[in-house]
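Most newcomers find our protein records easier to grasp once they have seen one. Sequence and backbone structure share a record, each on its own labelled line. To make this concrete, we reproduce a full record directly below:
***
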Amino acid sequence: MRRRLSALALAVATLAGMSFAPAVSAAPRPPERPRHEITFDQYSLLLDGRRQFVWSGEFHPFRLPSPDLWRDVLQKLKASGYTAVSIYFDWDYHSPAPGVYDFTGVRDMDRLLDLAQESGLYVIARPGPYINAEVSGGGFPGWLSTQAGKARSDAPDYLAAADEWLTAVDRIIARHQYVDGRGPVILYQIENELAATGVSQRNYVAHLYDKVRADGIGVPIFHNDKGRNGIWVPPGSGVPGTVPGKVDLYAWDTYPGGTCHTDGTPGSPSPAPDWGLYGPGGAKGGASASPNTPGFTAEFGGGWFDYWGSNGTYPCTSVREGPGYERVFYGTNIANGLSIQNFYMTFGGTSWGWLPAPVVYTSYDYGAAVDEARQLRPKAATMKELGYFLQAVPPITKQDKADPVTPTSAAVKVYHNVNPDTKTHFYVPMHTPSNATTNDTFTFPVSTPDGSYTVPQAGTLRLNGQDAKQLVANHDLAGQHLVYSTSELMTAVGGTVLLHGRPGEDGETTLRYAREPKVEVLAGTATATWNAGDLRLNYVHNGLARVRISGGGRPPVTLLLADDATADTFWRQDTAAGPVLVRGPALLRTARSAGGLLELTGDTAQASDLEVWGPGAVLSWNGRLVPARRTTSSSLLATAQLPGPDAVRLPALTGWKQAGGSPEAAVGHDDTAWRAADLTSTASTTKPPAGQPVLTADDYGFHTGDVWYRGHYRGATPDRISLVYGGGGAGMLQAWLDGRYLGQHVLPSALAAPPTTGTATFTVPEDLRGDGDHLLSVMVRGDGRNEDGGVNDAHKEGRGLISASLTGVAWKIQGGVADPVRGPLNNGGLDGERAGWSLPGYPDRRWAPAVVPATTAAPGTTWYRTGFTLHVPRGHDASLGLTIGDPAVPRSGGHYRALVFLNGWNLGQYVADVGPQHTFVLPTGILNPHGPNTLALAVTSDGGPGNGLETVALTTLATVRGGVPVHLVDSPGYRR
């Protein structure tokens, strides 16, 4: 069965939400855009009738607050073989208050979708309303926590708020849909991991579907089912045990790769599951829950997040879920016919400011294919191999199970599928079980319309370690007919075909000809055998062999036979004059043909060759002509290497100044303008004891970061004071009585699901217990609101104080104010934040000189400020970071934490005794690479020797010659 969603659906949906305006004189009608159609069946999506294998990477623009760098990441995804990008839209990031929505500057989603289109990527749009994503409140804005109605239900107040958000974001998404020819959006997700399936949730899902259709969304709609429960499948799936919902497609998420050990070592691989053609079937069998729609993993593990107090597992995760994992797990998905795969994350980025949920710290690197510093990890090269392969072999978009294949080794299994139309055969050998890592040789039978073979006929076929191979038989490409190959096909451009395999392993490729062709080995070593129409080539994957074949009744072809490392130096791009294959540089960003000129842009990380197959007789690289000569391989080879990057010299951070930042603790501090904390009811799930006032910060409009309380009371003070508070992940509380520091309490960490509330109990000094007027000053740091994954209003858990053992206290509260440019998640309620101490241009001339590192510290917050000027060479992309303390250890032991402000932007939080993060990425655009910068650190300490600020230094994370143009992000300075 084939389902259809087209421009007609969009038109009907638009009419459903029609509004009328007074008549005006008709303006000239703009040229009509081409209309497009999206259909689907059990095999794949079809765009205008063409089957598509959607190979998508997850990217969150809110985790990269420099819009020009969005282009950098999107170009890297496209160059690395991805055909689509999946994008969460974070409601909280755009809405500081009910009815207020900001889509400007670093929140410009129109620009983001334009850049995706420019980069040649389709878009899977995921606007929630709930997204999870390890962001504060799961994407729910702070103000939503004060609603009485249950979130993620059909409660009227919640639906009204969700509709308000969807109206705002859908207006943008609707302008960028594939179906009406205006953009790249091909799929749209409503809700995320909605585990509850009661009547209220069924009404809710139906409401969301109707709402987005009324907003003009005309592409297929889906929900992401957490862990393949068979819930929210399209009506009529007919599978017992499923829960139908108002959706067009069924999708699920899964993270089966396992995690690193707590000591940061990868451990042994996990087995890859079958959730499609070879799966168990039924409601919880993955694709089998919806047999009429394509197999769709809305999130398949591309890494995993890390938590406060860990030993820092991102580098380890990138190895555990590295090339071997990708080949086995994603290869298993391909063999199971899952033709829509999205990998979460592909670029994780930074949970800057107060964006993180309690379960993560600032870095959201995720061990992803593109690291937090925007560098391609080795695993990105494997994704390129797979992504290019999927684009090079269109028949893989329609696979049925074929006859079982039995290899000669019991340690190996071979998946065998066939396209029912083209009869192209697909073989995916891997170990059995798939998490085995032995070194095994084997042969297996190949039987296609070309004949029957035992493969390989010469040499060996090997699986060594965690590995799988994508092998093709009976396939036409580049004017040739491929009988079979034990090398993996990467791509074909014109008369050039790139095949690859593991270094040192044998390869065998057989092609069919009407008569014996001429074979020339241009480079490397290969042997040719001719037998009754079959030309068999045997070789070892070692560097790059080049074989030219001509005659035999077919056009000439050049076979490039590479080991993986060499194959990974190749890049493919499409131009109006045809595809281009490029070897050498660290990245090929764009290719454009203009007459006889082929204009290339990209990056070099070192001096590199430039060799090009494709249209054009003249080459340019990053705007400069490149002399080149024609080779016997039908390529153009630059006569000199492209230059690598110049050295980047970073200044030492000196000239520090400091000022005390906890005036709220002093008895004489003026709190007359503070808000009285006198509410008597709350929607919070952490209500105060009967008779006590509501103290939770959200109820008073303070949703992020630090919040201060001053409690005035008269009478004697008991010998102990207990304060119940909500602090999120590794949150903390500090308290002063009558201006004297009582101490701090830090919530336990080193847990994937940490406690987010706690009780701080302090012993009161005897001389402060007497009868009289007293002041209790309390600062609470709230590190994120809980996510609502359990559909239990967990995001409504209180932040700030919840209750106090003292009674009869008149409380006042003070928190942060949203920055109109940097947004609602940049600032908390520190006095220095409210006074602009984090901003460029603040007049700190009267501040005292500071020594960094500091051997001791006063309790409370101390601000440090300095400036530095950079001179990054023009035409370079230098990814820089700020390192505090010793990154060789996850924790320093000092009882302090620091907020990092660069040019007024809160780029993260360092917690010395919790860890593990020491280095904070400073994104270009926020960072001025060619001029002055202002650095401010808000250091909150328990006080005393050893609890002062450690060394602070700029760090080079990576540098390339190339990059993308980056304009400075608006960073308003101090104004009186």
The first helix runs from residue 7 to 16. The radius of gyration is 30 Å. Confidence is low (pLDDT under 50) at residues 6-27.
